[in-house]
Design a protein that fits this description.
The protein is of the alpha/beta class. 20% of the residues lie in helices and 44% in strands. The chain has 4 helices and 10 strands, in the order αββββαββββααββ. Strands 1, 4, 5, 6, 7 and 10 form a 6-stranded parallel β-sheet that branches.
Length: 153
């Protein structure tokens, strides 16, 4: 509850937003033609953070920028409401994402358009918060069930 008073906020929301932003920046630095829609301000439990596309570059996908540069090619477009998980020895060559996508395995994921419901981040109603596990109580939000396209490359 004291996170809202701290600067920077010391909480799950700010930490998660920073990790997603870092992975988005790494994708933009990959040398490919990458456009990621700008984040927007989100507030949960009186704590605000810039939250954009939730991008996770699993260590099995890349450990450094040089490795990432060899695995991302073509035109990449990602909306701010999207979530993207890249795992394994995959190469992404062209992607238009508006929704949720998990790519794992070995091989090439080429010139794909993925538009689905995705998994939005939603506030947990105040009257339901105490019934949630501690990991969600401290956040005040959760990932909606939604839809995730899973691809084994």
């Amino acid at each position: 509850k004291d996170a809202a008073k701290k600067c920077p906020h010391d909480c799950a929301l700010s930490a998660e937003a920073a990790i997603y932003a870092c992975d988005a920046l790494l994708l933009q630095l990959s040398g490919a033609d990458v456009e990621i829609e700008a984040p927007e301000q989100r507030t949960f439990l009186d704590v605000s953070a810039e939250m954009g596309a939730r991008i996770v570059l699993h260590p099995s996908f890349c450990m450094c920028l040089e490795e990432l540069k060899s695995k991302v090619r073509g035109k990449i477009r990602i909306s701010r409401r999207s979530s993207l998980v890249l795992e394994g020895n995959v190469v992404v060559d062209g992607l238009d994402l508006d929704g949720a996508l998990k790519v794992c395995g070995n091989g090439e994921f080429k010139s794909q358009t993925v538009h689905n419901e995705g998994q939005s981040i939603v506030a947990i109603p105040e009257d339901e918060l105490s019934a949630q596990p501690p990991s969600l109580q401290i956040r005040g939000y959760q990932c909606a069930k939604g839809e995730v396209e899973q691809v084994a490359a």
